[in-house]
Design goal:
The chain is α/β, with parallel strands linked by helices. Helix content is 31%, strand content 26%. It has nine helices and eleven strands. The longest helix has 14 residues. It is elongated, with a radius of gyration of 19 Å.
């Protein structure tokens, strides 16, 4: 498999073209290698200098990330950006980015991963963003205590970065919007959801959350966006036999 064949494989199940008009990310191949066969594929949330270094150290020549290098048009290749691109080229590593298509995928996406942790059923798309629903919502099989739901989301016991327990003690429904999706709690309020889960909090949502009686949990942007890249890695290894590795570089944010 080459990087171009990998791109075709990704586009066979990730709606990259469907999101191109609304996604600030340049999804797909952002920096290409020399066309030689892929030896190993690394997966990470962010295309940082450290994730590129570790990709090279692991002997991988493809790095698949959720957050790539290029956003909202052209970027100057200078400073830290130059160092990243230089290391990719010097190490013959192809960089592949997949942003919103990876958030919204109903089985492999970040929100799908959160839904599995919570054990939700009757899952449906949620959270309209420029005409596309990126998140998910669903129902707990039986009423679930807020503390129990939070333990499912953080099995290691780490607390949410922000918790506003303004809703019912027993949750029957939940809505999920990974990353910077705090404003979508307003849609969850409109739909009568008991628990809203996202990555980051915003000051502007505090009073609507409290006054509307919904539970709000922000787990950290990074923490909500590890599931998509891991799921794609597992699918790639299972379907093609290409060896994969996950580079875990949590930011705490």
């Amino acid at each position: 498999m080459t990087s171009r064949e990998f791109d075709a494989w990704c586009r066979s199940f990730l709606e990259i073209d469907a999101c191109s008009s609304i996604d600030a990310s340049l999804n797909g191949i952002q920096v290409d290698g020399d066309g030689s066969p892929l030896l190993r594929a690394a997966f990470a949330v962010d295309a940082s200098l450290e994730s590129i270094r570790r990709t090279a150290a692991l002997g991988a020549n493809l790095l698949f990330v959720h957050h790539g290098l290029f956003w909202k048009g052209p970027s100057r290749i200078e400073g830290f950006m130059r160092e990243r691109v230089k290391l990719l080229l010097d190490s013959n590593i192809s960089l592949y980015a997949c942003h919103l298509p990876l958030d919204k995928h109903p089985e492999l996406g970040n929100n799908a991963g959160l839904a599995r942790l919570l054990g939700l059923v009757e899952i449906e798309p949620f959270g309209l963003y420029h005409g596309l629903k990126i998140g998910l919502k669903g129902r707990f099989p039986e009423p679930t205590g807020l503390d129990s739901a939070l333990r499912r989301l953080s099995p290691d016991g780490s607390p949410p970065s922000t918790l506003i327990p303004a809703g019912p003690g027993l949750c029957r429904t939940a809505a999920l919007m990974s990353g910077a999706g705090a404003s979508d709690v307003l849609s969850a309020i409109d739909e009568g959801i008991d628990l809203f889960v996202t990555g980051e909090a915003e000051h502007s949502i505090y009073h609507p959350v409290v006054e509307s009686g919904i539970n709000f949990a922000a787990l950290g942007h990074y923490a909500t966006e590890i599931y998509g890249v891991r799921s794609v890695a597992e699918k790639l290894e299972r379907e093609t036999g290409l060896e994969t590795c996950f580079i875990d570089l949590p930011t705490g944010l």
